[in-house]
Amino acid sequence: MMYSPALLLSSLVGAVSAASSLQVVTVGKSGSLSYSPDQLTANVGDKIEFQFFGPTHSVVQASFDEPCTAFNGGTGFFAGMSTNGNGPNPNSFTITINDTKPVWFYCGFPGHCQAGMVGVINVSSNKSETLDIFRSNAANAAKSTTPKQQQGGVIGAFVNPSSATSGSTASTAGSTGGGSAATQTSSGAAPSHTGNDAGQLRGEFALLGGLAVAAAAMLV
Ligand SMILES: [Cu+2]
User: Fold this and answer.
1) For residue 51, what are the β-bridge partners?
2) CB 3.0–4.6 Å: which of 16, 103, 150, 210 could bond 80 by disulfide?
3) Distance from the alpha carbon of residue 34 to the mean position of ligand 1, in angstroms
4) CA atoms of 49 and 13, how far apart (whole Å)
5) Which CATH class is domain 5-219?
6) Ion ligand 1 — residues with CB < 5 Å
7) 178 CA → ligand 1 middle, Å
8) Cα angle at 122 between 117 and 123, to 5 degrees?
9) Where are the alpha helices (H) located in the chain, listed in sequence order?
10) What is the mean pLDDT of the chain?
11) CA 27 – CA 36 distance, rounded (Å)
12) CA of 108 to the centre of ligand 1 (A)
């Protein structure tokens, strides 16, 4: 349960390709109203990639005290609503962990948080703030809220391709404020599998192009 094949694989890939590790959380896979895994431990600088399955789900940051309410007046991360039939959505949502405080999250689709679609990164040792308690409190939440728009993370397919071709490394934007543990990053090295693959391909083509120019220059 703690070590899914996907998580192990992503950890191996992360260990080979980057200093910080990438952990994958599937969202609503196989028709479930759940995140898998729903409890993670991450280091500062690690990235968590949420991969969405149909029909409609999201991930929204919460505080422990308000399980189905957008974090700190709506300043936390929000993946937007992902609607994609029955299969996986090609657009993942990746957040970067900026401190070791607990990061609580839930699905903002009406009813899903109350049905137990919640999770946590870096749960504290405080026994009064466990995922089980958070989930049971969520069941009693009167309603779910979300920020107005996607924020606080990177959508896989929307990574700026120009930064990917430049080969620039990850850069972390400033805090979104309000003590948010996860803030937005802007990076060509965002750990979207499609983004990375495309970026690497583009990078290789750019390199080949550069070599061709160099070769042509030598011929003249
Ligand atoms: Cu959901």
Assistant:
1) 26
2) 150
3) 7
4) 13
5) mainly beta
6) 57, 107, 109, 112, 117
7) 25
8) 70
9) 5-17, 71-74, 131-139, 161-165, 193-219
10) 74
11) 7
12) 7
Amino acid at 22: L
The CA distance from 178 to 73, in Å, is 9
Structure tokens at 139: 């069941």
Strands 47-52 and 103-106: unpaired
Question: Strand locations in the chain, DSSP E?
Answer: 22-27, 35-36, 39-40, 47-52, 56-57, 60-62, 82-83, 93-97, 103-106, 118-121, 154-155, 171-172, 182-183, 185-186
81-135 tens-digit pLDDT: 888 766 677 779 999 999 999 999 999 999 999 999 999 999 999 899 999 999 9
pLDDT, tens digit (0-9, with 9 covering 90-100), for 8-55 = 555 555 444 446 899 999 999 999 999 999 999 999 999 999 999 989
Residue extents of the structural domains in the chain = 5-219
Q: How many Å apart are CA 59 and CA 28, to the nearest integer?
A: 11
33 Cα–ligand 1 center, Å: 6
